[in-house]
Amino acid sequence: MTRLQTAFAAIDQANSADPNQSDGQPVELLYGQRMTEEQLALYPDASEPLRIACRGQHIERWKLPRHDFPMDRPGYLAWRTEQGRRHAARVAEIMRAAGYGDTDIQHAEKMLMKQGIKRDGDVQALEDVACFTFIRWYMGPFSQTRDPDEMLRIVEKTARKMSPMARARALGEFAIPEPFASAFRD
Questions:
Q1: A Pfam family this protein belongs to (predicted)?
Q2: Residues 6+ apart with CB under 8 A from 1
Q3: 0.90 exceeded by pTM
């Protein structure tokens, strides 16, 4: 196996332990595979650190439940920051075991901790992939649990995180109804 295949296998093995199930599969295993599908479609020539960051973005996410933090905006942001730190550390461990050097590992860590979004191409690419994964696979079911005004704010925040290329592509690939589609045109 190549280093990349070894890293993917280790991430998938870790995420196979997720006790939460969706479509008969562990939730985070399915999420990682979906992230890879979107990465291949959006950024087929991605570097190996970006490919690994996409696959491992939610590695072992269930180990730090959201309810362990205050259920307000600051609590959510603290939880998300800690998740990014934990994901980066776990992916770094896997990359090191697969034979990657410090430069590649540090680059993947930077992406997973979202350091340089809108300034670093790979960090932005990871965010684009995450947004496409959300839109394609999770936004429909998620929207059924939110009121329309709240959902509009969520879609607007999602669109703002995306690159201009990804926003334009989203408009072409997804049937996004108004007023949500206007968030992708700004």
A1: DUF4202
A2: 9
A3: yes
